[in-house]
């Protein structure tokens, strides 16, 4: 919890999965509203943050990875048990041969298409119950992860949800692909306190890969705003100044389209939306890596809140140490632009390709994302981040050993312990 004392105004967690069987990585936290121990742990985290001098707002990011969840890599369900999504498919890993191999190794079976309305409503209930538990545990709000090709994002995309079913209880003017998100947000409105923050995370990359143009993507944002159910909308996937904020395996033409959409949002759409408190605060994440750029984005009302993601994985006290430190001149406040040792080689070996691939790209677990996740895991074990950590050393040390072996053994041991307790109680 180094971030709570680092000068941040808001701390948003990474993935907290609403279904323990469906993880995006072996490290993901889960939330079980029926578990007293889960509530106690999350309450402890909230108390730690609220009793620091800075007292940042604590927002829990709730997520379901959908078809991005690998049964092999995460060991959270049987290898033959599929992920769930609005279609039956596998995520793509680039156009190379190794990418194809990795695609079938990580996802031996295609995702199962959810066609039953009752199952969709059960997913709504999971999100709502998790949010209620977060509020009861003292958290200031939740953020619904509707980006990175995860479940909520895939439902919103024409590529992954070509024939969306209508869900009951949704107003007629709500687009079909937004029914799931609407029902979750309405549930949060009805079952959590008014001061409890309701946020949504979206990504320009998802809109581009889904085949949406600028106006279609803008219509989605306007629709979400019109519901008056959201306090914060986070938009990422581009760069406020330069098109260098990219995901692994994204080709140049896709990057250009994504950056164009990101620029459209920041320069044309966002200034037309009602400012807070009449409308949601816009949180912009992408390329805001120095004091001048952040100041400019706020002054020009390209956003209401400035978000920083990956650099914060290396410098948890970034605001106090650099951005807000009066002893650091503005020209020395740039914290982006670093490279990942062996990162380019990893992309090539894992099947990265410069050619535009077809299908649903795996954007949630790219080379850069994994490397920054490993930095977070180091801090979780009380070890400082290592900017010189090579990608393949991280793969062996953090992903295979700490992620699969150590955590896998703890999971097995925990399961055995639960079975033993049930036998004793029986």
UniProtKB/TrEMBL annotation:
Residues 122-214 form the NADH:flavin oxidoreductase/NADH oxidase N-terminal domain. GO terms for molecular function: FMN binding; oxidoreductase activity. The keyword S-adenosyl-L-methionine does not apply. Keywords: Flavoprotein, FMN, Oxidoreductase. InterPro entries: Aldolase_TIM, NADH_flavin_oxidoreductase, OxRdtase_FMN_N. This is NADH:flavin oxidoreductase/NADH oxidase N-terminal domain-containing protein. It comes from Cryptococcus amylolentus CBS 6039. PANTHER family: BINDING OXIDOREDUCTASE, PUTATIVE (AFU_ORTHOLOGUE AFUA_2G08260)-RELATED. Belongs to the NADH:flavin oxidoreductase/NADH oxidase family. Pfam families: Oxidored_FMN (PF00724).
């Amino acid at each position: 919890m180094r971030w709570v004392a680092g000068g941040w105004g808001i701390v948003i967690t990474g993935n907290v999965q609403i279904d323990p069987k469906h993880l995006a990585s072996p490290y993901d936290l889960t939330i079980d509203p029926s578990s007293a121990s889960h509530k106690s742990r999350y309450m402890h985290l909230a108390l730690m943050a609220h009793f620091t001098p800075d007292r940042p707002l604590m927002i829990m990011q709730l997520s379901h990875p959908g078809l991005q969840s690998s049964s092999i890599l995460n060991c959270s369900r049987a290898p033959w048990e599929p992920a769930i999504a609005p279609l039956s498919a596998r995520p793509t890993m680039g156009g190379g041969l190794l990418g194809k191999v990795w695609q079938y190794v990580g996802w031996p079976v295609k995702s199962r298409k959810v066609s039953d309305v009752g199952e969709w409503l059960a997913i709504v209930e999971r999100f709502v119950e998790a949010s209620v538990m977060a509020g009861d545990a003292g958290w200031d709000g939740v953020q619904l992860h509707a980006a990175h090709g995860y479940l909520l994002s895939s439902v919103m995309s024409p590529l992954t949800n070509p024939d969306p079913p209508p869900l009951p209880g949704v107003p007629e003017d709500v687009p079909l692909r937004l029914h799931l998100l609407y029902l979750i947000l309405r549930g949060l409105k009805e079952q959590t306190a008014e001061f409890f923050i309701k946020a949504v995370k979206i990504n320009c990359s998802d809109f581009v890969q889904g085949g949406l143009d600028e106006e279609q993507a803008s219509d989605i944002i306007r629709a979400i705003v019109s519901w008056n159910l959201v306090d914060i909308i986070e938009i990422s996937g581009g760069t406020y100044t330069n098109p260098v904020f990219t995901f692994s395996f994204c080709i140049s033409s896709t990057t250009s389209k994504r950056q164009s959409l990101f620029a459209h949002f920041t320069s044309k759409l966002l200034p037309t939306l009602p400012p807070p408190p009449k409308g949601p605060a816009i949180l912009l994440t992408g390329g805001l890596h120095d004091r001048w750029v952040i100041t400019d984005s706020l002054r020009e009302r390209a956003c209401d809140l400035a978000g920083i993601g990956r650099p914060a994985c290396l410098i948890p006290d970034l605001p106090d140490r650099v951005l807000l430190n009066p002893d650091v001149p503005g020209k020395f406040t740039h914290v982006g632009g670093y490279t990942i040792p062996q990162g380019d080689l990893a992309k090539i070996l894992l099947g990265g390709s410069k050619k535009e691939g077809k299908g649903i790209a795996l954007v949630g677990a790219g080379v850069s994302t994994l490397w920054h996740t490993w930095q977070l895991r180091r801090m979780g074990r009380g070890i400082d981040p290592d900017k010189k950590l090579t990608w393949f050393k991280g793969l062996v040390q953090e992903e295979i050993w700490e992620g699969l072996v150590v955590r896998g053994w703890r999971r097995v041991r925990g399961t055995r312990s639960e079975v033993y307790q049930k036998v004793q109680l029986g």
